[in-house]
């Protein structure tokens, strides 16, 4: 599962930098659309990854990625993951400068119009997500089981050279891996069983994270159904060297987990207990699942 995050990011990034944009640039991951884990990929299987640019705006590129697994003994192949990623090309001379993207040729006007609608929809959702994710997690001593406070979790990580691109910014795959780990901890604390990722709602990368930052990855339960748990995860970055800039919200996403028994069959999920103070952001989770 973790490898998939890096594959999505690295393969799409290379496609953008080496194939489509003629100017020398660094591809900054801006958003990952909803990702579904369709089938498991097992140890010893071969991963086949394909990426294709499907839409370009003036300053961004949509890349669709498919991951297939191959059993090298039987030759059987299956689609395990697919995702849509949005990248913004930045100048190597000045990473604050966004480079214009050459347009691609579409097979039909309808294909271009469909791509434009996807672009406008993700742009609007990014703005809405950034506005509603301003709260921080407050710690509570001795919280009641099955409450938001009982399972909320955080990881603190110092961004080092191995986490970054050649240009000193964190790989999107590194951030996604940490976010999934935190979401998994939240889910495990809530139901005390084996848990697996079922899907990931859109991951929005609001701002770049530089080498040397301390990032806090926080997760909290926002919704439970009979068989699934929705967990909100966000990443705050604190630039130690440039402390005067202050901490900022860098990434946000929602993860969906399911609980499994020893035979890997779905188990009922304990209902989430919500206090009045927690109702506002948990209500967002309820509305998202109804819609």
Automatic annotation (TrEMBL):
SUPFAM superfamilies: Thioesterase/thiol ester dehydrase-isomerase
GO BP terms, alphabetized: acyl-CoA metabolic process; fatty acid catabolic process
Classification via PROSITE patterns: HOTDOG_ACOT (PS51770)
Pfam families linked to this entry: 4HBT
Keyword Isomerase: no
HotDog ACOT-type domain span: 1-93, 149-263
Keyword Hydrolase attributed: yes
Gene Ontology molecular function: carboxylic ester hydrolase activity; long-chain fatty acyl-CoA hydrolase activity
Keywords, comma-separated and alphabetical: Hydrolase, Serine esterase
GO CC aspect terms: cytosol
Stored PANTHER family: ACYL COENZYME A THIOESTER HYDROLASE, CYTOSOLIC ACYL COENZYME A THIOESTER HYDROLASE
Full protein name: Acyl-CoA thioesterase 7
